[in-house]
Design brief:
This protein is mainly β. The chain has 3 domains: 140 residues, no CATH class; 85 residues, Sandwich (Immunoglobulin-like); 285 residues, Beta Barrel (Porin), CATH 2.40.160. Helices cover 10% and strands 52% of the residues. The protein has 6 helices and 26 strands. The strands form 4 sheets. It has a 14-stranded antiparallel barrel with strand order 13-14-15-16-17-18-19-20-21-22-23-24-25-26. Strands 6-12-11-8-9 form a 5-stranded mixed β-sheet, with no helix packed on it.
């Protein structure tokens, strides 16, 4: 838009040519920006041009600041405009308005004009301050925008506040609403929010429609030229690993504003996690063939079952800041057997939970607190129970649990991760009150590489306390998983061991003890970034001191995973 508008008045060089020569000027001047007088004068010589124009649009939140600069061999002229909640069309109109104001004989926006020094000392854009201008009458500083000379009819006028009174002494603040004050005084950071070097400078700029009174950063007052409407600052810093906060406060004739900026220093031990997408959905569809679907002992007749399952895992993430976020997660599981006599084993699992995740920069830790609940329903075609599932009439309610979790994940190095988790669960068996109670779980997991393979070792303890004391038990769990990447395919081998010891004798006078062993071999391949195909073979055996409670089974599982 700007190039077309200027082309009606002057001959405009192709932007590709300007950018090419601008790059040469930056190299010659050893300047990353090449917006100081000396570098721009050299660029004019390279281009054999009379004037240069630079348009800059910065955005912070809902606000935009537009600045148009005209640079010639004699002077630098700048005009600035602000816009709240503007779209592309509105920004286009305001760019045209800036160009019109820059060449207007009677501009209603303030035009900053600075003479060019032929051989100025070396300086950068980041340290350049607009020099003090002659004190303007308050009528010109904050004009009444009833008529906009040379402005296109129908276009919205810039949001310049109208003063409540004129002729106030310089030490008196003009009364204005809080929203007007924020919109009239904007603070922009020019420093990247992610850096790898602890030493550097925090660059920021303050712009206002009225003269600046004071600017401070983290409570330290900075020098501001008298009468300046805009100022840039470069504050040296030494960062600590992780987040570093910079709080900037600015006061102008019209009001005051405060902005907080965060600069994250990444090190070998502290990495900033990529922000979670606001919504995710994982869909898992699988088919499993089980040669002992009812888990009967070897002396009984085994039943082979083929089950298809669908699992939906939606999630919503709300990022509060670099350290904190809230996640809301759902889980929906449903399965179906091909065999009619196994339909009573089909379930529907529904779960909803919320988590508060907080980063702790102590050994690169992350703490998570979660609350949630789930329900399990069993298929009941005969409708023997009056307690029906609210979503599926062919299912009866079985259990309703609520739980709270606390976990800490620590990454002492790039290749090792410790995870500690505690869970307290309140169990509610809908049909049988004697199975109500609670279960407490504690587990520790270590993930580490060895011999070029990824290992994950987990140990845990589960203590179940139910109304029926004969069902009280203590389970110790242990597992080890080995992941081996081969030609783009991830191969896994896992061993799980669960030892259950009951607290009381059962009806036969025996204190039950069970040991369950599971061996799994699997392979998965990411076909695309959102589709993963996997296969696993699982061998499971259980030994018990109860008659008829031993069993062996083998399960083949083909699974597809879709990530949205």
């Amino acid at each position: 838009m700007l190039e077309q508008w200027l082309g009606h008045k002057d001959s405009v060089l192709p932007q590709a040519t300007v950018l090419e020569q601008w790059g040469h000027s930056r190299e010659a001047a050893h300047s990353s920006a090449c917006l100081d007088d000396h570098c721009l004068l050299e660029l004019l010589d390279r281009l054999q041009a009379e004037r240069l124009f630079d348009l800059e649009i910065l955005q912070t939140g809902w606000f935009h600041r537009l600045k148009l600069m005209e640079f010639s061999r004699n002077q630098r002229r700048e005009v600035t405009d602000f816009c709240k909640g503007c779209g592309i069309r509105e920004l286009t109109l305001r760019v045209q308005n800036l160009a019109e104001q820059l060449f207007s004989r009677n501009p209603y926006l303030a035009i900053h004009s600075v003479p060019i020094i032929p051989d100025p000392p070396e300086m950068s854009r980041d340290s350049w301050l607009i020099p003090a201008l002659p004190e303007l009458p308050i009528e010109l500083q904050v004009p009444e925008l009833l008529v906009a000379p040379e402005f296109e009819p129908g276009s919205e006028l810039p949001d310049v506040p109208k003063p409540t009174s004129l002729g106030l002494p310089p030490a008196t603040l003009i009364k204005a609403g809080a929203e007007d004050a924020v919109e009239d005084l904007l603070i922009f950071s020019r420093t990247a929010d992610l850096v790898q070097e602890p030493q550097g400078k925090f660059l920021f700029q303050v712009s206002a429609f009225s003269p600046l009174r004071s600017v401070s950063i983290n409570g330290k007052i900075q020098a501001v030229p008298k009468g300046a409407f805009e100022a840039s600052f470069a504050i040296p810093y030494t960062l600590e690993a992780g987040e570093n906060n910079f709080e900037v406060e600015a006061v102008s004739v019209l009001g005051e504003s405060m902005e907080e900026f965060v600069v994250f220093l990444e090190t070998d031990l502290v990495k900033r996690e990529q922000p979670k997408p606001p919504f995710t959905m994982v869909v898992l569809a699988s088919v499993a063939s089980d040669d002992n679907a009812l888990s009967v002992d070897s002396d009984s007749s085994k039943t082979t079952g083929t089950k298809s399952s669908l699992i939906l895992v939606p999630g919503c993430n709300f990022t509060l800041d670099h350290d904190s976020r809230i996640a809301v997660k759902g889980l929906l599981v449903g399965d179906r057997y091909q065999e009619t006599d196994l339909r009573s084993q089909e379930i529907i699992l529904k779960q909803l939970s919320t988590e508060w995740v907080e980063k702790l920069y102590v050994l690169r830790s992350e703490a998570t607190i979660g609350l949630g609940g789930n329900t399990i329903s069993l298929r009941d075609d005969d409708r023997a129970s009056t307690l029906r599932d609210a979503w599926a009439g062919g299912y009866k309610q079985y259990t309703q649990d609520t739980f709270g979790t606390f976990s800490v994940k620590t990454t002492p190095s790039e290749i090792m991760t410790w995870t500690t988790k505690l869970e307290h669960r309140l169990k509610d068996n809908v049909e049988d009150d004697t199975s109500d109670g609670q279960a407490n779980t504690a587990s520790v997991s270590l993930k580490f590489p060895a011999l070029g393979w990824q290992h994950t070792t987990t140990v845990g303890l589960v203590i179940t306390d139910l109304t029926d004391v004969t069902e009280d038990k203590t389970e110790t769990k242990g597992s080890h998983k080995l992941a081996v990447p081969v030609l783009g395919i991830s191969g896994t081998a896992q061993v799980d061991l669960v030892r259950a010891s009951y607290a009381s004798e059962d009806s036969t006078g025996v204190v039950p003890k069970k040991i369950q062993q599971t061996y799994t071999l699997g392979a998965s391949s990411p076909v695309t970034s959102w589709f993963i195909l996997g296969y696993s073979l699982k061998h499971q055996r259980q030994s018990s001191n109860l008659v008829g409670d031993d069993y062996v089974k083998n399960t083949h599982i083909l699974q597809t995973t879709f990530v949205f």
